Input
Amino acid sequence: MNRLSLNNKKKRLALTLKGLDSLMVAFSGGVDSAFLLAVAHEVLKKNVVAVTAVSEIHPPCEKKKAMEFVKNYGIKHIMLQSAEMSLPAFVANRKDRCYVCKKNLFKKLIKIASDIGIKYIAHGANTDDLEDFRPGLAAAQEMGVLAPMIDAGLTKDDIRLLSKQMNLETWNKPALACLATRIPYGTPITVKALEMVDQAEDVLVSLGFNACRVRKHENMARIEVNPEEIETISDKKNRETIVRKFRKIGFSHVTVDLEGYILIRPRLS
Output
């Protein structure tokens, strides 16, 4: 991707946002929504509002990071209790879980936007999402939620590169996904299971494994880290620490996935 083409995509995004007059951004604090929010703030100034969902499925540390990001830019920020665990269709954890979740979220965002006089709502989907299984995209389309970065032709790599140019601290942040994604489809989601996963991933982060996942299979924890870190996480000191702390959390078995967590990194050339 040459710089001219990349900047043209950003200009296309900015032009689209400028035509909206005012905007609410569904802001998770991740790479994509942070970039969208930052560009919207550049264009719309005080006419952009960020809304962050808060519930048991979102790691508490991400709430704090989202609050800090918005505070640095002086953007109005609303914390929304999204209450996914009150939805039987979500708790059942079928393959349409993400659709149920996003439909619930966007319905709440539409109500808030109406109450405060904002006409448009956008989320941080990019063109790479079109190639993946993303039931939430269908929910966004049905609810009239905009995806301006898809319209601008921005890929995940584009967003990371432009974020770096803008000095956004999120430019190289590991991919985010709600804690419910750590529980296999068909296994009902419980608050206890979400807490166990969150606590286990905190253990890994404290040991320096920032791009990681802990998948919960009944009482077994399946750890995913970058393939090149598998040897490190399996050394005696790390292994003993992880096993001890995971058993304290409530896992009876602890395993490391030999395939690893495949993290898509930005191409910086």
Notes: The first strand starts at residue 23 and ends at 26. Strands lie at 23-26, 48-54, 76-81, 120-122, 212-217, 220-225, 253-256. Residues 190-256 form a domain with the GMP Synthetase; Chain A, domain 3 fold (CATH 3.30.300).
